[in-house]
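Sorry to interrupt, but I need a hand with the structure work. Please put the record directly below this note.
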Amino acid sequence: MGDIPALPSAQWLWTQKAGSSEQECEDAAYSWQSGEAGVDSAGRAVASLYVAVSDGASESLLARDWATLLVRDAVESMRLAGDWWQELGTFVRDLMERSALHWDAFLTRYQAERATQGRPIAWYEQPGLEKGAFATVLGAEIRATVLDDGTTHWFWFAFALGDSCVFQLRGGRLVESFPVRSVEEFGITPQLLGSRNHDVRLVAERMRVAWGELLPGDELLLTTDALAAWVLSQATDVGGNGIVALPAFDSFDRQDFADWVDDQRARGRMRNDDVTLVRTRAGAEA
């Protein structure tokens, strides 16, 4: 079947909106990679890197906690489902049941901790807890597949609910954007997944799926909306040639990234919001 090459790592960089503390950042990200080769539905050897990002809705209570829980559950649901994009309804049901169970357990712990701290849930907080938390969610699988001729090809598969985005870059040029394709598509009311939402059919109808092939050296970016809008602006503004002038983040730490984001905000190129970037490269160690 051929050997599976080493999977790239996922570089995760984030910063909170200006004027907020790190603890107030409502974005979340999570990644997991398979430690050994598996087999896909066609019997081919595969290995995968799974990534998810989420942007908690500030208007809802405990949005940060919901986003943090959701990215882990999204990765787990993709990982356990195999070719999850082929049975989207089943995948959505598993994700929603998994996250609902974990959310209930979280709320039980949260309320108990508040009581122990002498800060029991106040009457005015109760409606917010009953309504639930809301967040966008974007998940991607980067899969190395050994084809029948023994060569390894790289593919990506992604799902999205809301305006967090995945971008495929080749030589710095934008070749794919999902689910948003232009800056004009960003609105003030993106699709969100609620912690109290149990309508699997409705969520499956609203969830979008895409996939594509990655050539060696291609980059895949997963971003929340503020950076996503920046990427699309770059791709259309720099001479209209699709070039995205991202810095070479390989040696960046989180403070370097925060400084870069602050500079873009100061220049009026990026709106002030929590920012998350997960970046990986096909066919090479990141």
The longest strand covers residues 134-146.
